[in-house]
Structure formats: C-alpha cells, structure tokens
Write a structure and sequence with these properties.
globular, 7-stranded mixed β-sheet, Aspartate Aminotransferase, domain 1, binds pyridoxal-5'-phosphate, 4-stranded antiparallel β-sheet, about 35% helix
Length: about 400
C-alpha cells in the first residue's frame, strides 16, 4: 500500500524519533524546573491575579532575553497583536499587510481594529513575507502623500505590515524595513513562534515598533495561555501596560480610568509558570537545535523531500520542524500525513491560506503563488524539546 518514497520518509523519521516516544506529538511542553515551587508560592501569597512579583519578574526576564527595553505580559499572543496594532495607529478602514501564510490570529487581530488585512506572498527561503515581491507590488499599487501610504485601488491607507517569523525562522527584515521607511508603513513583528530566534545576531522582535510573543501550550515556552508585547520604545511600552490593564490611573483606592482600556493582563499564577519556563529556555533551545540537526542529517539524501533549514542570516529556534516536498512530489502530502499518523508520528499540514477562510475571502491580496505552493508541500513533524530524551 505505501509507496517507496513514503517508506523512505517514515524510515528517516523513525531513525530520529525513539520508538518509546510514540505516539510522538507535534510539540509537547515540559515542566521539569521550578514550575511547582513558584505556583505553590504564588497560591500561598494569595496574589493570584494581576498584582504580584511574578508578573514583574517574568516581564524583566523576557526583556533581558530578547534584548528589548520593555516587555508587557498579557493573556495571549492574539491580544498582544491587537494592542500592538492599536498603538501603531491602526484604526477602522486602514489596511494592514499580512502574510496569507500564517496562523489565523495575525489576521484576526487586524479585524479587531476594524482594519482590513491585505494578504501578501511568502518566499520559500524563509517561509515569511517576500520583500522583493512586496517591493514590486507596492510600486504598482500605492501612492504616498502627506497622509502616508495609500492603496490606489481601494483608496484606503496602508498603515502597517506584520512580518511573521514562521515556525521560528526569521523573515529577511532589512529589505522589509527599507520598504517601511520608503512608504511610511509601521512594522509590527509577529514573533509568536520565534522566542530564541535571531536575525543577523539580534533577537527577533527588535525591529518592530512593537512586537509580540506567545506562550500558548504548544510554543517554545508556555504559561498555559499567555503572550507579551515587546518594544524598544519605553513610552509605547508604558502605554501598552496601561491599555492592557484597564487604563487605570494608579491610586491607592480611587477608580479612575483615562481610556477604554482592556483587561488583557497576564495573571500572576501564569507568570509564575513563565518565570520557571524562562529559566529553562536555553536548555529547550539547545535541545531543539539538536533535534533539528538530527532531522537534517536523516533527510539529507531522501529524494523528493527536504528538511527546512534556517536561512543563512538567521539563527532559528526551530520551534516547529518542517519538511518540504518537491513540486513534483506534492501529491504525496495526503498519503504521507496518513502513513505517519498510522505509525504514531503526529505530523500536520500547514495552515490554510487566510483568503481561503470565509471571513477573509473578500480582502485584497496580491499574487500568492509561493504561499499556495508551500501549503501543498509543507508538513510539520514532531518538535518537542525532549523528544530525543
Ligand atoms: C500562536 C500564534 C499567535 C497567537 O498566539 P496565542 O497566544 O495563541 O493567542 C499569533 N501568531 C502566530 C504566528 C502564532 O503562531
């Protein structure tokens, strides 16, 4: 039943994944550090919600690790994106450039602002937005005036662009920044998947006006649910803290709020888990790179399929490892998903492209040929940090 190429792929996966680890899930969290100690301490303190030292500590650990001036912990990565876009000035009827090839949260957050996602293509070298294709496209469709960048076809303002560091692999940011400067477009990095990934030696998230991280259960570190805004603009960071905590003016008893704020603060109990996870982050990253190296070796000479490697300018966290089928072998995607699942290896296809989803089907989009091809050929494979033990 299974064809020879599929047997080769299964054999290569089995040469890496220990048989005792099956079923091997895509990404499993690990709590072998101070999680229980800190959570117990948090419960004993009774400060389980928004006040407490773990939130402050988690924020400073994040800022230090990612080398930014300010980190603000929030309930999840999606809410972080919502606030980042708002603080970048995105409002109703603006357009925001966003890859078609991303997780739905990126596009949803644009909608929360009343803005319209404008979908752009990706490049195979990074799995992120293609700056050269974007450059040609913008030349065609926009004009710049005192108001900023305008889409000539829709008449709407193009306010921001969101590069997504897909599966942890950094986007080629320098040429994207050049376009942002040329066209007065703000940049928000969706670094939800790229904690521990570096672009040209600097941690991802340092280029955006604001950037975001996610600590969902399947991400590199987890707080159960959680996220953060990170920024090098201290004033914006303070404003992000204020807006995500009901915009309350500090006072010992009075309730005074000066904006329509949001209740997006990360509870102290989640931050307690986060602090313990941050202490282990370098171990997770080391283990993940070892696993990626093992996959790379196992797939070095399998015809028709390749292991996706970090671009030359980047150091990736290899959050989710990916295999890419050659164009001519794309017919193998479905049979491969089925065969790996039968074998206890929980592979996954990539997301559906955003314009395929009913709520985004009428949004503007450029030619998406690369993203369309990637979706037909990409398969994520088990990537838990302790898969090799
Ligand atoms: C996980 C993720 C998010 C959202 O994070 P949540 O914490 O799940 O809200 C946003 N963008 C990308 C690319 C993600 O992978």
């Amino acid at each position: 039943m299974t064809s020879a190429p599929i047997r080769d792929v299964i054999r290569a996966l089995e040469s890496v994944i220990p048989s005792g680890k099956k079923p091997a899930v895509l990404h499993e969290p690990s709590f072998q550090g101070n999680e229980w100690t800190y959570v117990r301490d948090c419960l004993n303190s009774t400060y389980v919600s928004y006040v407490g030292r773990y939130v402050d500590k988690f924020e400073s650990m994040l800022a230090e690790f990612t080398e930014v001036k300010k980190a603000v912990a929030v309930v999840n990565g999606t809410s972080a994106l919502h606030i980042a876009l708002k603080l970048a000035g995105v409002g109703p009827h603006d357009e925001v450039l966003c890859p078609a090839f991303t997780f739905v949260a990126t596009a949803n957050a644009i909608s929360y602002c009343g803005a319209i996602p404008h979908f752009i293509d990706s490049e195979e070298a990074t799995l992120g937005i293609d700056p050269r294709k974007l450059k040609d496209y913008l030349k065609d469709i926009v004009s710049v005036d005192a108001d900023g960048c305008k889409n000539k076809w829709t008449g709407r303002r193009i306010k921001a662009v969101i590069p997504v560091h897909t599966f942890g692999h950094p986007v080629d940011l320098d040429p994207v920044m050049e376009l942002c400067n040329e066209y007065s477009i703000e940049m928000i990095e969706d670094a939800a998947e790229s904690l521990g990934s570096y672009y040209k030696g600097t941690h991802t998230g340092n280029w955006g006006k604001l950037s975001i991280l996610s600590f969902n259960g399947n991400k590199t570190i987890t707080t159960g649910g959680g996220g953060a805004l990170i920024t090098n603009d201290e004033n914006l960071g303070m404003l992000a803290k204020h807006l995500t905590s009901t915009a309350k003016i500090p006072h010992p008893w009075a309730y005074c709020h000066d904006h329509t704020g949001y209740n997006y603060r990360l509870p102290n109990i989640n931050a307690a888990v986060g602090c313990a996870q941050m202490e282990q982050l370098s171990i997770f990253l080391e283990k993940k790179r070892k696993l990626a190296a093992a996959y790379e070796k196992a797939f070095a000479s399998i015809p028709g399929i390749s292991f996706f490697k970090e671009p030359p300018f980047a150091r990736s966290n290899y959050w989710l490892n990916a295999l890419l089928l050659d164009e001519s072998a794309s017919g193998l995607l479905e049979p491969l998903l089925e065969a790996t699942h039968l074998d206890g290896i929980m592979t996954r296809p990539a997301w559906q492209l955003m314009p395929r989803l009913s709520m985004f089907k009428d949004c503007p989009a450029m030619d998406l040929s690369c993203a369309e091809s990637l979706v037909k050929r990409l398969i994520n494979i088990p990537s838990s940090p302790f898969l090799l033990g």
